[in-house]
Amino acid sequence: MSAEPPPASWDIPGQRRAAAVLQGACARDEVSHAWAFVGPAGVGQEQAARTLAAALNCAQAAEGAPCGACDVCQRCRRGAFPSFWEFAPSGSFHRVNEVREQWLATAFRSAVEGRWKVLRIIDAHRMNEAAANAFLKGLEEPPPNAVWVLDIADPDELPDTILSRCRTVRFVAWTPDELRAETRRLGLDDDQDRALAVRASLGSPVALARLAAPGGLDDLRMHREIPRRLREQGSGYAVLAARQLDEEGKRRSAALKAEGRAELEALAELYGDALPRGVAKQVEDGLSRREREARLSTLQAALDDLVGWYRDCLLVAAGGHPAQALHADDAKALQADAAASSPAATLRAIDLVLAAREDLELNVQQTLALEALFLELANLALTT
Ligand SMILES: [Zn+2]
């Protein structure tokens, strides 16, 4: 993960069309009170929402673009501007009390600073029915000078009554060329590493950044060895693998912790040590949320790697050429794993991993859940 958030700028990699729509709306002063950012998560929605907040509040904005340099723009860029909020689900869903007590309450309160409030709802498609009904109120009677931004990966999960009240902007997965350019920017210089990172990222710059971070590709290579090691070492390795993933999650959230401390110090300096309590709390809440999310997304990404490997095994077992596989660089191991397990057992393994991935979101004991998964996979390897 790159430490510096991208600038408050409409130059959003891979999303030229979305950026043009948003900038145009700002330039013509036709900013809708609600936007649906529809597309795969993590392809530039964060930068777009923060740039929108900057464009609406920067005193030097011109032609719908923020200056990018002033204090307002800098704080929007870090997500630390007091009239910019990001709400993420606290569990697997956004809940009705969060909608009432946090989203709507914030939207109808007058702004602490700045002319426009921007409220970004992360994973908005994860509102349960009661939450969606409560939220409709905020769309039907829009609060003054407030703009909702809804990140929606799966529009089918939201009632039409919500979607029809938003202006839709499409966000798209990155192309291989864009991903390749990004690997260079991220400092991956080995050709094989670059190719593996691009294939394994599946079009997501967030996944790519994770893979390109120090140790990222080593982690991926560790994940894809799990099936072989479970087969060879059995349940003893199940416990070890769970512990390794646990360490990985901690390592990733530790980096965020350091970043967060620096952010708070920068803010304290800006406010001359009189950091308003509300602002400090907002930043601290945001930080602990991001740490939790970083840990969860690290574990989920590890399981995604595992699923990718099993899918490759199915491809090879079905007679596909290893060069078509995500893990084309490790064809020998792929063939060995494909030969060691029946396709039915591999499919069963994929099901187990996907179920565990979902369980992780429910705030279960994550390390225990992983241990249980790996024990099941080890048993499956023994019986096939
Ligand atoms: Zn500015």
* CA radius of gyration: 22 Å
Low-confidence stretches: none
Class from secondary-structure proportions:
alpha/beta
Number of helices: 15
Strand order of the largest sheet: 2-3-4-1-5
β-strand number: 5
Main sheet: strands, sense, barrel = 5 strands, parallel
The hetero compounds bound to this protein are: zinc ion
User: Overall 3D geometry?
Assistant: elongated
Beta-sheet strand percentage?
Answer: 5-15%
Helicity range:
55-70%
Cα distance, first to last residue?
A: 39 Å
* Overall residue-averaged pLDDT value: 90
SSE ordering? HEHHEHEHEHEHHHHHHHHH
Give a structural overview.
The protein is an alpha/beta fold and 384 residues long. The chain contains 15 helices and five strands. It has helices at 16-27, 45-57, 71-77, 96-108, 129-140, 160-163, 176-185, 191-201, 205-212, 216-233, 235-270, 277-317, 331-340, 343-361, 366-383, and strands at residues 34-38, 84-87, 117-121, 146-152, 167-170. The chain has a five-stranded parallel β-sheet, sandwiched between helices. Helix 1 (16-27) packs parallel to helix 2. It is elongated. Residues 58, 60, 66-67, 70, 72-73 line the site of zinc ion.
